Amino acid sequence: MLEKLYEILFIARPDKDEAQLSDTIAWVRNVLERNGARVIDHKVWGKRKLAYKIRHVTEGIYVLMEFVHSGANIPEIKRILHMSDDVIRFIIVKKPSAGKAPVFVLETEGVIREEPASAAENTYTEEITTTEQYEQS
């Protein structure tokens, strides 16, 4: 099967020290590799404030990991990551080929579908620049 380039951005619990964060990264890498992925690289973006509370925390340690995968076991990877207490949120995205928009891998009711990023954007583009225009509409 043709392998494609994916990336996963996950948020680890903020109370992790350096060794525990390394263990969490190794665990995510192991989950990916056990399910047929080949991890290329990872970058730790560091601790950042969340826009809203997730699992009763307001900060998280962001980690970006690139991997190559056929796409067949993505639902299993998601299932395992959802059960983790160390990973509080994640997203898996299929990276675009040259000149193409990114594709989000969505799973609903056990069915995987790939949706272009542009479909997720708001199509309403009219801007209201003054309060007078707002009041008239």
Question: Describe it for me?
Answer:
This protein has 137 residues and is α+β, with helices and mostly antiparallel strands. It has one domain: 2-Layer Sandwich (Alpha-Beta Plaits), CATH 3.30.70. The chain has four helices and six strands. The protein has helices at 18-34, 74-82, 117-120, 131-136, and strands at residues 4-12, 38-54, 57-69, 87-94, 103-108, 111-116. The chain has a six-stranded antiparallel β-sheet with strand order 2-3-1-4-5-6.
Structural class, please? alpha+beta
Q: Strand share of the residues?
A: 35-45%
Strands side by side in the biggest sheet: 2-3-1-4-5-6
DSSP, total strands:
6
Total of helices: 4
Q: Give the CA-CA distance, first to last residue.
A: 53 Å
**What is the fourth-level CATH superfamily?**
Ribosomal protein S6/Translation elongation factor EF1B
Helix proportion range: 25-40%
* Unreliable spans: 119-137
Radius of gyration: 18 Å
Largest sheet composition: 6 strands, antiparallel
Overall spatial form: globular
The topology string of helices and strands comes to EHEEHEEEHH
The CATH topology = Alpha-Beta Plaits
Q: What count of domains describes the coordinates?
A: 1
* CATH architectural category: 2-Layer Sandwich
Report a brief summary of the structure.
By secondary structure, the protein is α+β, with helices and mostly antiparallel strands. The chain is 26% helix and 43% strand. It is built from four helices and six strands, in the order E-H-E-E-H-E-E-E-H-H.
Helix and strand arrangement:
Elements: E1 4-12, H1 18-34, E2 38-54, E3 57-69, H2 74-82, E4 87-94, E5 103-108, E6 111-116, H3 117-120, H4 131-136
Antiparallel strand pairs: 1-3, 1-4, 2-3, 4-5, 5-6
